[in-house]
Amino acid sequence: MTKRFHGKIGEEYALFERAYTHFNEFQERIAKQVSKHCKGKKVYPILELGCGPGPTSKKLLMLNKKAILTAVDNEPLMIAQAEDYLQQYEDRVYLVQRDILEYLDNMPGSVFDAVASGWTLHNFDSSYREKVLRGIYRVLKPNGIFVNGDKYAQDDADKHHADFNWSIEQFVKKMAEKGHHQLCYDWIIHMGFDEDPKRLMKERESLSELERIGFISPEVIWRKRMEAIVSARK
Ligand SMILES: C[S@@+](CC[C@H](N)C(=O)[O-])C[C@H]1O[C@@H](n2cnc3c(N)ncnc32)[C@H](O)[C@@H]1O
Q: Which of 6, 90, 91, 93 is most buried, by the most CB atoms less than 10 A from its CB?
């Protein structure tokens, strides 16, 4: 799998947060969906795919006080930042530096009550992503929940283009106009590559794919601009 988060984008990922006014709400909604599903359980293992520097992980840990979190990322820089950022939760979090599919393929089935991810699966080409989704299904316990917050393109192309333009505008306003020209440029290129039809996740197709794999009741539970949160059960 190509690594897309080394270099400047990885080093200054925190600036990305400023570019998206709905960043916090997005992270919190992912974690809330997991906690709503796992309410009443004693201690429960959850898995996060693509933790980056840890924003999704932190919300998952804050809102799931009885959860033990395993968070996977293949970028050493991101794992180092997450170690630092999640220090106060060190007794409840295991950071694993590994490729996501490799990790899933090496796990036994029916282990986790929840699998969550933020802004990660859209980086994959569709054939790798399908293998990952099948892996997620396998490692979930029966009735376990999968929550993915990510870029899901709206099925209406005009709406999708308007969302795309809005996101670019945010990068220009919050990065370039504050002096971070190179970073703004890097993110715009990254966004352009995300539109590659080999990668782009369209909302309706993505829900159908989950159903085909066997997930129960996949649905969009939240959307703001390019970002949507999809939830489904095993
Ligand atoms: C955009 S970041 C998301 C970080 C965080 N979840 C958030 O919402 O801000 C995506 C992360 O996925 C990781 N990643 C991408 N492809 C991966 C793969 N195949 N295996 C492991 N990690 C991967 C990247 O290194 C990066 O840290």
A: 93
Name the residue of 5, 25, 115 to mutate for ligand 1: max ligand atoms within 8 A of Cβ.
5
CA 217 to ligand 1 center in whole angstroms: 26
- Per-domain residue ranges for the chain? 22-152+199-233
CA 108 – ligand 1 centroid, Å: 22
Q: Please name the residue ranges forming H helices in the chain.
A: 8-11, 14-19, 23-38, 55-63, 76-85, 100-105, 126-139, 157-174, 181-194, 203-213
Prediction pTM value: 0.93
Mean pLDDT of the chain: 93
Architecture of domain 22-152+199-233: 3-Layer(aba) Sandwich (3.40)
Average pLDDT estimate for 145-153: 98
